[in-house]
Amino acid sequence: MFDTMTLTKLLGGFCGALLIFLLGSWASSAIYGSYGHYHPEQAYIIPVEGDEVSDEPVEEGPSFEEVFASADAAAGEALWRNCQACHATEQGVNGTGPYLHGVVGREIAAVDGFNYSGALQEKADVWSPENLNAFLEDPSGWAPGTSMGYNGMRRVGDRANLIAYLDSLDD
Question: Residue limits of the Cytochrome c domain (predicted)?
């Protein structure tokens, strides 16, 4: 039923279709520009009544230091499950990311045998709780060019709990 010629035709058809889709994608990018990279300036601004900017400071909530002082390591252990896909808590066991045993207070890029991105090495010297907080909030914003593909943890309480859990691992 299937001979060499039939399989060759199927493979050729698949490769041809793939080529057409790739060429179409390339052509549309050339015509319309890359999506997400084109930021035109606004041509005009429509004034709106009552849209004055206030000089009063906006309250942002408690600072990280206040939240970290009352952080719960047990709650951070539940949040650790999101990190387990790439990291390990056992010392010397690297995954996609470096092991995180003793990470709080450790020098950045100090794990032997792990290839860190240069973005982290240029940003800071030590993984202090404040540096970890900033990194976990927005990894690519804090260290542009980092190879960590995580979008970040938005809630300051969650970040504080996770850092408290990581700090409790090495006593």
Answer: 71-170
